[in-house]
Amino acid sequence: MRFLFCISLLFSLTALDAAELTRAQVEQLLANADAQHPADLRRKDLTELDLSGLDFRRADLWGADLRRANLNRCNLAGLTLDLTVMTQIKLSGANLANTSIFGVSLMHADLSNADLSGSRVVAIMDGANLSGANLSRVDWAADMKNQSMGLMRASLKGANLTGVNFSHAKLGRAMLKHAKLVNANLESADLYSADLDGADLSGANLTNASFAQARLHDAKFNNAIIQGTSFEGAKNLPAIP
After folding, report:
1. How many CB atoms lie within 10 A of CB 224?
2. Residue 58, CB-side half-sphere exposure with 13 Å CA sphere
3. Is the pLDDT reported for residue 198 higher than 60?
4. With 0-12 CB in 10 A as exposed, 13-18 as middle and 19+ as buried, what is 136?
């Protein structure tokens, strides 16, 4: 009896992990969509599907389950992706410009070379790979209107941000502990009260960036470009070579 119960449980768990739709079905929904009637993928289970290269600009993906799905090179520009589930998702080279991503886990996601310019993101991106990504003019600052829920902010602990373009970005109170920002462009970025303890900013362009009130214990600034950079009130500011 116990054996049969275990087999039954295994099948039920497998069913729960299976995607609701195939790639072909998603393609058909997208082909039939228009601006007034977007493809209804709201809350759909799309786990582990290969959806690479598709154009989702006329789709409703709010709350969809995209864990471990392959959306490399997809076009998601301008979409609202709030409350989607995107842990370990693949979004390399994807267009996410001007998207809204709120209350989402992107832990260990692959966003390398993605375009997130102008996006509004309040999400957990710990351990994610964003190397080479375009993050110019993003608003990833903490959401100070939702303090009853705790500090809602972009968390990028241990994230790979090598060579990213963070120019003119808003990163107030962002969590960047031990993030790798080697050769990143942070020109005119606002990192007010951000946590950069242990972050590596070697070779980064920090021209006119603001680190006011930021935490900088053990942060590395080797060969960083520091012109007009503000460290007013920064905590544990290391000696800058």
Report:
1. 23
2. 14
3. yes
4. buried
